[in-house]
Amino acid sequence: MRMASWGARVVLAVVVAAGAVGGPTAHAGERHGGATYFVDCGGGSDSASGASPGSAWKSLEKASEREYGPGDRVLFRRGSTCVGVFAPSGSGAEGAPVRVDAYGKGAKPRIQGGGARAAVLLENVEQWELRNLDVSNKGAAPGPDERRAGILFRLTDFGTGRHYVVDDVDVHDVNGSDHKDPDPSGGILFVVRGTATPTRFDGITVSDSTVKHVDRTGISTASSWGKRPEHPLSGAPGWAPNTDITIRGNEVVDVGGDGIVLQHGHHALVEDNYVDGFNMRSAGYNVGIWAWNFDDAVYQYNEVTGGHGTLDSQAFDFDGGNNRNVYQYNYSHDNEGGFLLVCNATGMTSADNVFRYNVSINDRNTWSPPYGVISVVCPAATTDTQVYNNTVVTDQEGTAMVSDNGKGGVTFRNNVFVSTAEGGSPIRDALNTYDHNLYVGVGAVPARDAHAVTADPEFLDATPDRPSDLRLRPGSPALGAGVTIQNAGRYDYFGNRLEGSTDIGAYQRPGLR
Q: Distance between CA 218 and CA 282 in Å, rounded?
């Protein structure tokens, strides 16, 4: 069940019709000063000019020979299948990117890498946009070091690369090795390598795309330039942060390792994504949506489910070097690893993060201690991690609601913790701070919570299996029982405006307050 956005949100789309063959769409703000080249792997000819559908090129090799420039377009015929690697060169310019798109009618054009390093490889280029492609890269069973990707943007000692767009692209069936960093396998990847020139991505958008059945990572950034005061032990030559990243409206399904992960940067928006099935085949530690060594990211309106495994297989994570990150309005359910991980690494700084107005239904983690539905683990403390106004419900026998095996640093306020399991779901946490939470079925209530509420919250459905079931009835003891939190945002999980008294949980009653 995919979470629906609530009505208060507004999405503005501007679409400009195109006049080019079969209708690749022109996008507002772009200008087209370059040439257009056509590729038809079924009926083209590499001896042709490529300048029209009737004189289309035939192969990816031919399409990769040219150095493209500002405003150029490369259009693949719908319904065609190209086998090999599309690895063009050249860059666009601001306002005139190089655009790859489809023409004609029928299914998206297919690019099948057949086990190459990447089916689409864009190396040391900038100002590129990819749309309306179907990309796969399945080969023989990979060797232990045989990395593969569907789409790989890679910069090596390049400096700052700007403006990269992947929109309405389907990536699937990538069977790469189980490599995570610094040069991973996966679906849609942005990788920085090299040590001579500080290098980074500035301006990444991945939107309305699908990533299915890939190993090991769905969508990610990675970098060899991650050393800074917050991560002094990285071994990198210095700090070159990836910036201005938007990951929106994507479906990530059946990935071997991590679903969506941002690394080494600051300022990102990750919203309206659906992750179903992660950590499916990896031997490592993986999370649905998270970041490493990354500041000032907002994660909202995402749904994460189907996480496999009992180690770091949570939906969400504040990890090493995370600062001022916010998770809000997210829905997690039926994850074997749990809901939230708080895990700062040795020598790193992770501070001032916020987790609010999120919902967890029937997440679990049976490896307890040290893990639970919410796990505060790892050797280094976080600083001022605020977890407030979330609703956490589990029916899973044998799981802990909260488990601590770390250094603490988390404050839990105004949260609803409810276990509907016959044996309950204990809170095993002696280090962190609790205040004004509601507890049912958690065993001993934390003695540090002087304002604990232990009555039935009176959900609309006593055995909830969807977020709407978690709205509170008019007589709920959670109503008006919370503590006011400064800078708590504008809305609750359901889109109700925050005003007046504070309720406990992700639901804040509308109207009379």
A: 12
Nearest CA among 303, 159, 158, 147 for reference residue 216: 147
Distance CA 285, CA 351 (A): 22
Query: Would you say 118 and 152 are in contact if contact means Cβ atoms under 8 Å apart?
Result: yes
What does the pLDDT look like over 456-491, one tens digit per residue?
999 999 999 999 999 999 999 999 999 999 999 999
For residues 211 and 448, give the distance between their C-alpha atoms in angstroms, rounded to a whole number.
44
Structure tokens at 451: 């304002």
Q: pLDDT (tens digit, 9 = 90+) per residue, 427-441? A: 999 999 999 999 999
Under 8 Å between Cβ of 54 and 22: no
HSE value, Cβ hemisphere, 13 Å, CA-based, for 95: 3
Question: Which tokens sit at 37?
Answer: 């080249």
Instruction: Kindly write down the DSSP assignment for every residue of 407-454, as one continuous string.
Output: ---EEEES-EEEE-STT---EE-SSSEEES-EEES-SSPPTT-TT-B-
The pLDDT-based confidence of 156 (bands split at 50, 70, 90) is very high
Of the candidates 196, 188, 183, 182, the one whose C-alpha atom is nearest the C-alpha of residue 165 is 188
Cβ atoms of residues 24 and 18 within 8 Å:
yes
Average pLDDT, the chain: 93
| 395 contacts: CB under 8 Å, gap ≥ 6 | 362, 419, 420, 421, 463
Coil, strand or helix at 266 = strand
DSSP codes of every residue in 129-140: EEES-EEEE--S
The owner of tokens 């189907």 is 306
What band does 80 get if pLDDT is binned at 50, 70 and 90? very high
- Is the backbone peptide bond immediately before 53 cis, with ω within 30 degrees of 0? no
Among candidate residues 371, 238, 211, the one with its CA nearest the CA of residue 293: 238
Q: Tokens 């719908």 identify what position? A: 78
Predicted confidence band at 8 (pLDDT cuts at 50, 70, 90)?
Answer: very low
User: Would you call 355 exposed, middle or buried from its count of C-beta atoms within 10 A (0-12, 13-18, 19+)?
Assistant: buried
pLDDT in the model for residue 398: 87
pTM of the model: 0.94
Q: Please answer whether residues 340 and 355 qualify as being in contact, where contact means their C-beta atoms are separated by less than 8 angstroms.
A: yes
Q: Are the C-beta atoms of residues 440 and 417 closer than 8 Å to each other?
A: yes
Q: With pLDDT > 70 as the criterion, what percentage of the chain qualifies? A: 93
Count helices and strands (H / E) in the chain.
1, 38
Q: Amino acid letter at 396?
A: Q
